[in-house]
Amino acid sequence: MDASLFTSILFATVVAGTPLIIVALGLLVNEKAGVLNLGAEGMMAMGAVAAFAVTHHSASPWLGVLAGMGAGIAMALLFGVLTLTLMANQVASGLALAIFGVGLAAFVGKPYEAVALQAVPPIRIPFIADIPLIGEALYNQQALVYFSWALFWTLLWFLHRSRAGLVLRAVGESPASAHAIGYPVVRIRYLAVLFGGAMAGIGGAFLSVFYTPMWAEGMVAGRGWIALALVVFATWRPLRVMIGAYLFGGVMITQLFIQGSGLQIDFPSQLLSSLPYWATIVVLVAISRNAGTIRLNSPVSLGKPYRPES
Amino acid sequence: MLELEARAEPSRLMSWASPLLAVALTLAGGMVIFTALGKDPAEGFRIFFLNPVKDLYGVSELLLKATPLMLCAIGLAIGFRANVWNIGAEGQFMLGAVAATGVALSFDGTESALLLPAMVLAGALGGAAWAAIPALLRTRFNANEILVSLMLVYVAQLFVSWLVFGPWKDPDGFNFPQTRMFSDAALMPMMLEGTRLHFGFVLALAVLVAGYAFMNRSFAGFRMRVAGEAPDAARYAGFSAQRMVWIGLLLGGAAAGLAGMGEVAGPMGQLTDKVGSGYGFAAIIVAFVGRLNAFGILLASLLMALLYIGGEQAQQYLNLPSSISMVFQGMLLFFLLGSDVFIHYRLRLRRRAPQSD
Amino acid sequence: MPNQPTPSSLPHLPSDAPRLQLRGIGKVYPGVVANEGVDLAVQPGEIRAVLGENGAGKSTLMKIIYGVTRPSSGHLFWEGTEVHVENPAHARSLGIGMVFQHFSLFETLSVVENVALALPGAPALDALAQRITEVSERYGLPVDPRRRVHALSVGERQRVEIIRCLLQNPRLLIMDEPTSVLTPQAVRKLFATLRQLSAEGCSILYISHKLDEIQELCHTATVLRGGKVTGECIPAQETPQSMARMMIGKDLPHCVHGAARTDGELRLRLAGLSHASEDPFGTDLEDIHLDVRAGEIVGIAGVSGNGQQELLRAISGEEVLAEKFPVQICGVEAGRLKPAERRRLGLCFVPEERLGRGAVPGMSLADNALLTAARGQGMLAGGFVRFARARDFARQCIAAFNVKCGGPDAAAKSLSGGNLQKFIVGREILQAPRLLVCAQPTWGVDVGAATFIRQSLIDLRDRGCAVLVISEELDELFEICDRIAVIAQGRLSPTRPAGTTTLEDIGVWMSGMWPAADLEHQPPAGMPTEPADA
């Protein structure tokens, strides 16, 4: 493999992994608080369409990202009201959010289907971007790529070094105990859910404004679900989320490169395109085989509703 | 300050009233959306909810749309009752369609009356086989069936697309992604002259009755309900959790596959890459709105079919994207989940400091 | 109990107002009045018992004081000033600490993290660990601050809870049923700690239904029945009988107990049962031997979390073993059999958790009858359920076991704990088991139902059934069992006849110290006298 091909594959892998990192880290916080939101796909779709529309009208991708984040938060708020205030089933509500979000995004996005956006130029970090082979791939990237790294380091510190992170983990492990010693469980869970929504919205915005950049119905293409799988795969640890996201990015990009390389391989493109989905399944199987690992690491109250007695 | 207070006993009244409340709220929400989009809400209501059922043909179309929905939903409901979350009915639907198409194309030109039953069987088996993957991975490797069954939807879509772009493409089809039209022996017989309503509807009703008998009268159905409500009690009683995963997924897959068969052998008459039109996902909503029971699913599937056709009508007469029906469907489920809280809780006013008076 | 120290006299501290005073406190839940018009006062340094049987409203009252729930009516005065305790953090800032019966600890977090969560501000963990060590030494509560809670024994967890309170220098400490998880020796140590605190001026509210403990420890007592105060007393001046009358309105009922048979047919044999727990936080079973014969009740004592759950699952078949021989039911090697197959051999089983395991909360009693009795009692026909049969069976069970409920269609969760337990025990007994395994038969049940259930077990034994009871209540085991063994850290002691064993011996055994198995039929000569608390 020549050096420039390596650099471009690495570059594309990082880009493809970025939305997964952002969304999955958001979901990780969400789930650490004990709330399972299966609606990531819907929140991403709404984030993508809102970001696209606002960028289109304002010509500012940053306003677009804000809008995407806002849309994600709004969707998460809907989920929060249902599951945290009205105590609806989290699985059913998450599925509803996924279906509704994808549908609403398709509806709202109809007028934007044939519109193109200007590509946002990458930000080049002086000096280190000159490192051979990896410099161009890692340090001449979109701002949101750097954001995803900052998010990772922040979360690492937050979850394991900060008081607030300790409280979050406590709420996810035993909401009843957290309530008994006086923490506002429902409010903390709301914050976690909204954070998850915000990150899903930004992840969606990255897809429609920076990655493609365009809007099409179904463009999220299961990335919300893959992000959910990543959190399980990572057994709720940020570092593994990063590794997993880049692995998936790599699988997506490699199959694209094979398809686009003109290599004379006798393999249908559609079946090649299904590789990331198979990869998700394989990875899930690999990590879930050991039921003990999952049980040891998963937030104990995940998916279980909690209502403090008054 | 308003607050929720737990009821001593769940309200029977509310468990019936809640779906009606949800429907009413969805209608109200729809009026708001129409108004917001600058349409006359009364006109919108007429086109969306009344136009589709204004004549016999309209009703037949409604029943036609409801057919795959009720089939998928009853299958899903069996699993959902046991907390087996198969959300890949869409993929199982497509694989059922593929399997039935395979049989139809292999025996193209035969006049045999056995062809259609063979396709029905193939459809059910195709769907069940696709659902067997998450079942196997869940029971053997503990892999989450939600994510696996969902991933397989994307795989199924790409698989169908490969078939109709590649090996199964109609040589005389001007390069459209579709197979040949099925021969007459491979098509469902019609129920009503001049409509597209076929016997798949009767089949779906029969499956609904069977689903009722299974869930409400059989011991296997009882075991699944116990597993869903109290997994530890199921384990204590010795009901095998693995068997329930298999039953839930296989029945769900078979029913979805049957629905897929009904589409290719019914209104479509061929396999195209548009075969999955979201029925498998909509059926999740149908199952919940129908309260996971057979009669409820019948009503809910009619309602959801109305929303589908209403969306098409809105596109035609109101110049709105047809995806508006997905918005309505989502709203319906949200409102239902929200109103359900009043089965177990009531609203009451509470003063901030109860002691001081 | 011999050499029982009487409570030291109340230290006299100058104070105008009681430390805590409740006036007319009431709490109404939908359909339930948990507390009504409760008056209570506790002075500085006073150890006051709040005495009442299960369901008398003790825990609700304490949650009100600690701000976990809010009262529906009444007034609460803290050192003379009326306060509305908004939440537990507010209570702690006032100087109120509480040790919960079901601990409010986080299993996957370390001791120091757990403590930090209950302290205001954001204390540095290293300094906090140092303070924990200091407090634990001062009050004789040894615990390693860096260990994770799931690795601690139940007794150690309670120490963490107490230390967590003490670090905030509380002026009132609430202890909710603290001794239900301790060995008799550990109870002594706890009492020493509490007396030390009392001497330093800390008031203590001590919730219990154990009369002997209250007599030993408490200066004063407030008695609750049906959510109301039914009396106040000075325990040292009362007898257990007189306090029991205040508590339940009549004398404590007792079971009628005939002599045991020892020559009955072998119904359960555990032959070297070893099994690794499925639960990563569970206890592994190690080489367990036990015989239970027809016509006897064998009891297994032990502090919870020592392998009881695992042992029960291994016997019931909820966890299938790798080999056949370690569990033998009515002469059949059953280690590989599933629960339904073991039931066909004549095993019936009452689990510890009533709601969610022994019964499905949202289902009717008739449906709950189907849970275990469907096959044996002819409730099935060709894969379909004969619902009429299930209802008949439930009705029969309701009548025979005096279950107060709305009939066979009442949902399991609408029954009180005692009545649901009677239904579950009844459902199992009516299937005429050859072997009944019963976990915590009267946990959280009112005195009347508890006596009824114990008597039912004895009657079942007299009809020739083999009964195995696993319980944390030593008094209960001594009341109904013919032989008693102890489980500790996944190992089972030899059995001893209940009549010739003392509570004291069993208490020592509960910390894992019993004579080697080959000494089974000899007097326990080399038995340690100084208990090492696990």
Structure description:
The complex is a heterotrimer of chains A (310), B (357) and C (534). Chain A is mainly alpha-helical and 310 residues long. Chain A contains 14 helices and 2 strands, in the order ααααβαβααααααααα. With 357 residues, chain B is an all-alpha fold. Helices cover 69% and strands 3% of the residues of chain B. Chain B starts with a strand and ends in an 8-residue tail after the last strand. By secondary structure, chain C is α/β, with parallel strands linked by helices. In chain C, strands 13, 16, 19, 20, 21, 22 and 23 form a 7-stranded mixed sheet that branches. A 6-stranded mixed sheet of chain C has the order 6-7-8-3-9-10, with helices on both faces. Chains in contact: A-B, A-C, B-C. At the A-B interface, helix 3, helix 4, helix 10, helix 12 and helix 13 of A face helix 5, helix 6, helix 11 and helix 13 of B.
Which structural class best describes the helix and strand composition of chain A? mainly alpha
Strand content of chain A: under 5%
User: What's the N-to-C terminus distance of chain B?
Assistant: 17 Å
Order of helices and strands of chain B: EHHHHHHHHHHHHHHE
Low-confidence stretches of chain B: 353-357
Enumerate how many helices of chain B there are, as a single number. 14
Largest interface, C-beta within 8 A: A-B, 47 and 46 residues
What's the end-to-end separation of chain A, in Å?
Answer: 66 Å
SSE topology:
The complex is a heterotrimer of chains A (310), B (357) and C (534).
Chain A: H1 3-32, H2 40-58, H3 61-85, H4 90-109, E1 123-124, H5 135-139, E2 140-141, H6 143-161, H7 163-173, H8 175-180, H9 185-211, H10 223-233, H11 238-260, H12 269-273, H13 275-288, H14 291-297
Antiparallel strand pairs in A: 1-2
Helix pairs in contact in A: 1-6, 1-9, 1-10, 1-11, 2-3, 2-4, 2-9, 2-10, 3-4, 3-9, 6-7, 10-11, 10-13, 11-13
Chain B: E1 2-6, H1 12-36, H2 41-50, H3 56-81, H4 89-106, H5 115-141, H6 145-165, H7 200-217, H8 219-229, H9 231-237, H10 241-268, H11 279-289, H12 294-317, H13 324-339, H14 341-344, E2 345-349
Antiparallel strand pairs in B: 1-2
Chain C: E1 20-29, E2 32-42, E3 47-51, H1 58-65, E4 73-78, E5 81-82, H2 88-94, E6 96-99, H3 111-117, H4 125-138, H5 154-166, E7 172-176, H6 184-199, E8 203-208, H7 211-217, E9 220-225, E10 228-233, H8 240-248, E11 266-275, E12 285-293, E13 297-301, H9 308-316, E14 327-329, E15 332-333, H10 339-344, E16 347-350, H11 365-373, E17 380-381, E18 384-385, H12 387-400, H13 417-429, E19 435-439, H14 447-462, E20 466-470, H15 474-480, E21 483-488, E22 491-492, E23 496-497, H16 503-510
Parallel strand pairs in C: 3-8, 3-9, 6-7, 7-8, 13-20, 13-21, 16-19, 19-20
Antiparallel strand pairs in C: 1-2, 1-4, 4-5, 9-10, 11-12, 11-14, 14-15, 17-18, 21-22, 21-23
Helix pairs in contact in C: 3-4, 3-5, 11-12, 11-13, 12-13, 13-14
